[in-house]
Amino acid sequence: MAADARSTKRVLIVDDDPATMRLLRDVLGGFKHDHHYQIELAVDGAEGLAALERERFDLVLLDIYMPGMSGLELLEQMRRKGLHTPVLMLTGNNDGRTAGRAVASDILAYVPKPFDFERLELLISLATAAPTAAAGAAAGRNRP
Q1: pLDDT by residue (tens digit) across 123-139?
Q2: Which of 1, 28, 49, 80 is deepest in the core (most CB within 10 A)?
Q3: Which parts of the chain sit beneath pLDDT 50?
Q4: Does residue 86 sit within a domain?
């Protein structure tokens, strides 16, 4: 498929670490998928929630531990508001209890740092291959 004919997938990266956000943005730009990624960045849970309330995304890459509103708190707010955008939960911490809470909150996957880029690419590809939240917004498919 020609580069200019590729579809666009909207991805929200929510992480308080600028280096991680840059890395994820660069990695997404290097994937050879049938679509390209339009990326929005949020530095904390509150900013991420505001972006999700303002726009539709096909995927959220969400850090668990952030100051202020944590990733888990943002995830709970998303689900409470009926936002069922696929989420990949990112963490540099090996806390099994937190991982369990994240999985119980209907995330697509729990992704430990440092990233296994092949696994991350596969997960992102799977998440964005499904019917999209952004494309389905007009049809109301991403709300209960």
Answers
A1: 999 999 866 544 444 33
A2: 28
A3: 1-3, 133-144
A4: yes
* SS3 (DSSP) at 143: coil
Number of structural domains (the chain) is 1
Helices (H), the chain: 18-30, 45-54, 71-80, 96-104, 117-129, 133-136
Tokens of 128: 């964005």
Most distant CA atoms of the chain, gap in Å: 45
Position 131 scores a pLDDT of 63
Task: Tell whether 142 is covered by a domain.
Answer: no
CB atoms within 10 A of CB 130: 12
User: Which residues, other chains included, contact 127 with Cβ-Cβ below 8 Å and sequence gap of 6+?
Assistant: 58, 59, 86, 88, 108
DSSP string, 49-89: HHHHHHS--SEEEEES--SSS-HHHHHHHHHHTT----EEE
Whole-prediction pTM: 0.83
| Domain of residue 48, residue span | 3-132
Three-point CA angle 6, 86, 115, nearest 5°: 85
CATH classification of the domain holding 55: 3.40.50.2300
